[in-house]
Amino acid sequence: MAAKPESKKAGPPTYMVSFGDMMTLILTFFILLVSMSKEQRPGLVADGVGSFIVSLQTHGLNGILSGAEEQAIFDEVRQRFGLPPKAEEQEEAKFDMTSTLELLRTQAAEGLKPHDELFQPNIVTFQPNSAELDDYSSRRYLDRIASTVRPQKGQFLILEGHAADSNRMDPARDRELSNKRAEVVANYLIQNHNFVEERVEARAWLVELGGPEDPATRCVDARLVTPYSVLD
Question: pLDDT band for position 191 (50/70/90)?
Fold first, then answer.
């Protein structure tokens, strides 16, 4: 009897060969850049390899891995290089996640379009590197405008915190401070003027246009948003 022909096993798709070559070339290029750097630190290589592994596992898309999972990858790579985990990385990842959540809130607010809004800039200005309300001027002004910015049925009050003064070399710290400033104003209006909590959104301004000496980067802006469907 004739032998049965052997069935060919299905291999990986052909594009995987080119993809693997491209990834290898990118990694080699990165290693060359690091090797020619004036500052030779193993931590730079570990951080680069960690980012490369995260990109491979997520296909370059955000949100597939949580901040804790990405942090675990970076810690494992640093351990392979004989380096201790970076204590501040977990906190920075937390701030980056906060920034992502604030961006999502911004997109949600834009989803209310078409809408009408009442914009009041600089309803509170803070002292440099501070998120505390002034006991007299700031609280008094908030008391005066509370009725103007109070969200009614179908309306939303969006409070946008600004900060460029906590640390110019660390944008994550600025975002944390700007978010705290917006939350302080929101809590004051909720607790002292009975604003409905679900109608008040506090968020951080992601990119500041001015420097730390500009009072506009140490304030909180207010947007009272009214969808057209409410106005009809």
Answer: very high
| CATH number of the 103-231 domain | 3.30.1330.60
Residue 108 CA: distances (Å) to CA of 105, 153, 158, 181, 198: 5, 18, 11, 21, 14
Domain spans of the chain, in order of start:
15-85, 103-231
SS3 of residue 203 by DSSP? strand
Structure tokens at 13: 């798709």
Q: What is the per-residue pLDDT for 231?
A: 47
Instruction: Please state whether the peptide bond connecting residue 42 to the residue before it is cis, i.e. omega within 30 degrees of 0.
Output: no
Please give the single-letter amino acid code of residue 171.
P
- pLDDT grade for 184, boundaries at 50, 70 and 90: very high
**Residue range 132-136: mean pLDDT, rounded:** 82
Nearest of 163, 98, 103 to residue 129 by alpha carbon = 163
Give the distance, in angstroms, between the CA of residue 12 and the centroid of all CA atoms in the same chain: 37
The SS3 assignment for 65 reads: coil
Helices marked H in the chain — which ranges?
15-35, 42-58, 67-80, 87-110, 137-149, 171-193, 228-231
